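re: the backbone from monday

yeah here it is again, tokenized this time
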């Protein structure tokens, strides 16, 4: 019998917005500032996990694609949200350029 272990790692990045709800687009933009610096020449799909008060729990780049496309598997997005016990989430594609 195979035993599997899931691990989600987090690191402190960017500006801290703990306790500040992401209640509008401007707050989401501020929270995501600096997240798109790596792999600027490829499309990326990012997920922001939120608690019940819309405060961020975590953000993660789930998928990295090519210059003009990224394949997103909804099951992986939902898996991350469920494992993190998130109330809701925001998904965002980052396009190069």
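seq for it, each position gets an aa:
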């Amino acid at each position: 019998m195979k035993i599997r272990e899931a691990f989600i790692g987090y690191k402190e990045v960017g500006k801290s917005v703990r306790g500040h709800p992401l209640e509008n687009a401007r707050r989401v933009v501020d929270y995501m500032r600096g997240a798109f610096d790596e792999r600027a020449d490829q499309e990326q799909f990012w997920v922001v996990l939120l608690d019940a008060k819309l405060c961020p729990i975590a953000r993660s780049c789930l998928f990295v694609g090519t210059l003009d496309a990224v394949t997103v598997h909804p099951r992986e997005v939902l898996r991350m949200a469920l494992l993190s016990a998130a109330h809701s989430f925001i998904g965002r594609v980052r396009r190069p350029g």
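DSSP finds two helices and three strands in the chain. The longest helix spans residues 74-83.
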